[in-house]
Amino acid sequence: MEKLSLLTTEEFNPKSQTLDEMSTNEILTIMNEEDQTIALAVNRVIPAIEETIEKVVIAFKNGGRLIYIGAGTSGRIGVLDAVECPPTFSTSPELVQAILAGGETAMFHAVEGAEDDELLGASDLQKLNVNENDVIIGIAASGRTPYVKGALVYANSCHATTVSLSSNENSLISTYAAIKIEVVTGPEVLTGSTRLRAATAHKMILNMITTTSMIKTGKVYKNLMVDLNASNFKLRERAKQMVCSITDVSYEEAEVVLKQTEFDVKLAIVMIFTNVDKSQAQQLIAQSGGFVRDAVKLAEIKEG
Q1: 48 in Cβ contact with 116 (< 8 Å)
Q2: Is 220 helix (H, G, I), strand (E, B) or coil?
Q3: CATH 1.10.8.1080 residue window(s) in the chain
């Protein structure tokens, strides 16, 4: 087993060795200065993130899923990203999922020993009937969490695409993944507290993976969330504003068409742009793989 003291995430940060003697302003300043290095660390691993996204897009198109698995803060970061996909992109809860060592209880309370159980990682993943169409991302800041290792080993046995996300070079879990994302953020201001820079970097990377994958599967038009689930007043108003902005119709007209589509923004946009009814717009979107631009172009071709 790798010694924790040898990990970059466990090293002492020389800039913060007198943290307990600093003023509040000094603490905030050094934390802010150190946080500014996170984006640069993420930039260095963009090729690996890109490779991951390409696999996720293929998975989505083939009926597969994106599944995060981790323990503690790493697992919670996965949960945060996964639960935002259905309201943001109208995806099913099954498309992007997160498994947290210790289950739902561990989201709010530490479950002792869960992260050290390699067999538990495998058995938790086994419950989801993982197959070759899925992408499994094991998240561990240290890069050596047994729970995550066990999950990746099991995922490989199912021929799923495996990805490791850690904050140490040459991490243990990387040896069990087809794609390794090692975003090295360096020693934390508070030694070993990887809920700080390491976790922030991981959240940024998960944001990039899901957002870009959704864009590449037709969930976005221009830079707008045209597949959002307009489940409350705020989101319904956002839907109306999007339709107004994109199609240049009045607020009232946007509202009328959106009510016809049950606030399906993509349908409303295609109906207005192509002057077709709801059923025809649904066909155009289906034939275009969910992409609004392609649906409109297809209508123009048919009309021409």
Answers
A1: no
A2: coil
A3: 233-303
Q: What is the pLDDT of residues 172-188, one digit of tens each?
A: 999 999 999 999 999 99
Amino acid identity, position 205: I
Rounded Cα distance between 198 and 187, Å, is 9
Q: DSSP character for 17?
A: T
CA distances (Å), origin 211, targets 89, 103, 194, 199, 224: 9, 25, 24, 18, 12
Pairing state between β 161-166 and 135-139: parallel
Q: Name residues whose C-beta falls within 8 Å of residue 197's C-beta, 6 or more positions apart in sequence.
A: 34, 35, 37, 38, 167, 185, 186, 188, 189
DSSP state letter for 162: E
Q: Is there a catalytic annotation at residue 84?
A: yes
Mean of the per-residue pLDDT values of the chain = 94
Active-site choice (34, 115, 188, 255): 115
Q: What is the dihedral of CA 172, 177, 179, 184, to 10 degrees?
A: -20
pTM of the model: 0.93
Give residue-wise pLDDT tens across range 67-105. 999 999 999 999 999 999 999 999 999 999 999 999 998
Q: Which CATH number is 4-215 given?
A: 3.40.50.10490
Q: List, in order, residues 6 or more apart from 2 with CB less than 8 Å away.
A: 144, 172
Are 122 and 91 spatial neighbours (Cβ–Cβ below 8 Å)? no
Smallest CA-to-CA distance from 197 within 57, 62, 77, 54 is with 77
Which residue among the candidates 10, 11, 51, 84 is catalytic per the annotation?
Answer: 84
* CATH 3.40.50.10490 segments of the chain: 4-215
Kindly report the CATH class assigned to 233-303: mainly alpha
pLDDT recorded at residue 3: 60
Average pLDDT over residues 234-239: 95
